[in-house]
C-alpha cells in the first residue's frame, strides 16, 4: 500500500459500536490476538464499548501488540456530567486512542463541530491519539458539497487545536452513505477526499494517517489500501468477526 512510498505506518481500527457481551468480547479478542502476534507492519486497534474496556486490557491486550481505543469521550474534563466518561479516565484504564466525531454521534446525539473539537483537544491533553471522523451525507455528495463539508469538519479541529495537534492524530474519512450500508466508496472517491484532507493539513499532512471507513470488507480492503493516501481503515460490521477483521489487517501489509 501507500506505506512503502510515504513511510506512514498503516493502521486498522475496529469500531465495535453498541455490540457484545463479556463472553462475545472475550472470544473476539482471543480470535484477534491469536492471529495477530509478533511484529507487523500494520498497527491494529480495537474499540469496544466503555464497559468492556477494562476487561479487554486486563484479560487480553496487556501483553499483546493490539492497542486499545474508546469510541467516544466526554467534552468535559470532570464534574457533574452524569453518564459521561472523560478522556483522562480512558487514559487511566489503558486506552491509547479515542474516536471523536463519529457520524453516529453527530447524527443521533447532535454533536456539533465545536463539541467534537473540544473532545479532540481533551484526548490530546490526556496523552492519547484522537481518531477524528469526518464525512458527508448522500445529499451533500449529490449537491457537490463533499469537499466543503470535509473542510468545515477538519477546519473546526484545526481552528480550535492548531495544526500541531492535528499532526499527532488520525483522521478517518467515513462518508455517511457508506457506513453500515454495504455500499463502499470506490477507491477513486475515497482517494480524492483523502488527498484533499492531506492538503488541508499543509506540510504536516504528509505524516498524518488518514483512514477510510464505510463498509470495508476483506474483499474490498486491498484495492482501497492500494491508493496512495489511504493509510488503513476504520471498520464496523466486518470487525465483529475475528477472521474477517484479520483479513483486512493483512491486506494493509501487502
Ligand atoms: O462506522 C464505521 C466504522 O466507524 C463503518 O461501519 P461499517 O464498516 O459497518 O460500514
UniProtKB/TrEMBL annotation:
Active site as annotated: 102 (electrophile), 174 (proton acceptor)
Name the EC number(s): 5.3.1.1
The organism sits in which domain of life?
Bacteria
Q: Cite the binding residues for substrate.
A: 15-17, 180, 215, 236-237
Q: Output the Gene Ontology terms for molecular function.
A: triose-phosphate isomerase activity
Question: Where does the record place it?
Answer: Cytoplasm
Per the record, the GO terms for biological process are: gluconeogenesis; glyceraldehyde-3-phosphate biosynthetic process; glycerol catabolic process; glycolytic process
GO cellular component term, pick one: cytosol
InterPro entries assigned = Aldolase_TIM, TIM_sf, TrioseP_Isoase_bac/euk, Triosephosphate_isomerase, Triosephosphate_isomerase_AS
Give the catalysed reaction(s), semicolon-separated.
D-glyceraldehyde 3-phosphate = dihydroxyacetone phosphate
Q: What class of enzyme is it?
A: isomerase
Q: Which Pfam families does the UniProt record give?
A: TIM (PF00121)
Keyword vocabulary terms for this entry: Cytoplasm, Gluconeogenesis, Glycolysis, Isomerase
Spell out the PROSITE patterns in the cross-references.
TIM_1, TIM_2
Would I find Isomerase among this entry's keywords? yes
Its pathway, per UniProt, is: Carbohydrate metabolism; erythritol degradation; Carbohydrate degradation; glycolysis; D-glyceraldehyde 3-phosphate from glycerone phosphate: step 1/1; Carbohydrate biosynthesis; gluconeogenesis
Purpose of the protein:
Involved in the gluconeogenesis. Catalyzes stereospecifically the conversion of dihydroxyacetone phosphate (DHAP) to D-glyceraldehyde-3-phosphate (G3P).
Subunit (UniProt):
Homodimer.
The text of the family note is: Belongs to the triosephosphate isomerase family.
What is the protein's given name?
A: Triosephosphate isomerase
In its UniProt entry, the species of origin is given as Marinagarivorans cellulosilyticus
Amino acid at each position: 500500500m501507500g506505506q512503502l512510498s510515504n513511510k506512514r505506518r498503516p493502521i486498522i481500527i475496529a469500531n465495535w459500536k453498541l455490540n457484545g457481551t463479556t463472553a462475545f468480547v472475550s472470544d473476539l479478542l482471543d480470535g484477534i490476538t491469536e492471529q495477530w502476534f509478533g511484529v507487523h507492519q500494520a498497527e491494529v486497534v480495537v474499540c469496544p464499548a466503555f464497559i468492556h474496556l477494562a476487561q479487554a486490557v486486563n484479560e487480553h491486550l496487556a501483553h499483546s501488540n493490539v492497542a486499545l481505543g474508546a469510541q467516544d469521550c466526554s467534552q468535559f474534563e470532570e464534574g457533574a456530567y452524569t453518564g459521561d466518561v472523560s478522556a483522562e479516565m480512558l487514559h487511566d484504564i489503558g486506552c491509547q486512542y479515542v474516536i471523536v466525531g463519529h457520524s453516529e454521534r453527530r447524527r443521533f446525539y447532535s454533536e456539533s463541530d465545536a463539541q467534537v473539537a473540544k473532545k479532540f483537544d481533551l484526548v490530546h491533553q490526556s496523552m492519547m491519539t484522537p481518531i477524528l471522523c469526518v464525512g458527508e451525507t448522500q445529499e451533500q455528495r449529490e449537491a457537490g458539497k463533499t469537499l466543503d463539508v470535509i473542510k468545515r469538519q477538519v477546519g473546526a479541529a484545526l481552528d480550535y487545536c492548531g495544526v500541531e495537534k492535528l499532526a499527532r492524530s488520525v483522521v478517518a474519512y467515513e462518508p455517511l452513505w457508506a457506513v453500515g450500508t454495504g455500499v463502499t466508496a470506490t477507491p477513486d472517491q475515497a482517494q480524492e477526499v483523502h488527498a484533499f484532507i492531506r492538503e488541508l493539513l499543509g506540510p504536516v499532512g504528509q505524516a498524518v494517517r488518514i483512514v477510510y471507513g464505510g463498509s470495508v470488507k476483506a474483499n474490498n480492503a486491498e484495492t482501497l489500501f492500494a491508493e496512495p493516501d489511504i493509510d488503513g481503515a476504520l471498520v464496523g460490521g466486518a470487525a465483529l468477526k475475528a477472521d474477517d477483521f484479520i483479513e483486512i489487517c493483512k491486506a494493509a501489509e501487502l
